[in-house]
Amino acid sequence: MILMDSNSILEEEQATTLPYFGLEQVDELATLFSKVDPVAFQKVCIKVVLNNREVYFHAGIQTSKENNDWVTRKFNVTNMFDHCSLYVKTLWADQSEAFFNSYGLSHRDFALVGGALPIITKGNGNIGILVISGLTDTEDHEFGVKVLKQLKHQLLS
Predict the structure, then answer these.
(1) PANTHER family in the record, alphabetically (predicted)?
(2) Spatial contact of 13 and 116, defined as CB atoms under 8 Å apart
(3) pTM (2 d.p.)
(4) Which of 16, 66, 67, 74 has its CA 20 to 30 A from that of 109?
């Protein structure tokens, strides 16, 4: 696990910006998760939302309803702030209660943890959200980054 600061996470968001992404690429993205790390794939739930529409959901054989709840809470953070949930976590690192109080948010609906990443395309900006839950929050984030970078490489080839 690598400890990251907010600037590093913003750089990752730029590094994972895709040339394009639509429904045609959803299956390709989903397949990459099982290829990149088949063991982790069975430990996680993965949700892909594109243009405010859930277009993919995976629940690994080692997951539970709790993972689904984390997916929702992580998604809500990225949906509200248009950045990785890990980025928002780093911004409020020692002030988590201030975060919830400042925005009037509920712990039931929002989680200051990593694992939700915006799906960004060149020229269009944020078009969706990718959420992973089942590993540590940093590992969830790193799994998402690794797969998005691999997808970007494939789309550019």
Answers:
(1) PTHR28255, UPF0303 PROTEIN YBR137W
(2) no
(3) 0.95
(4) 16
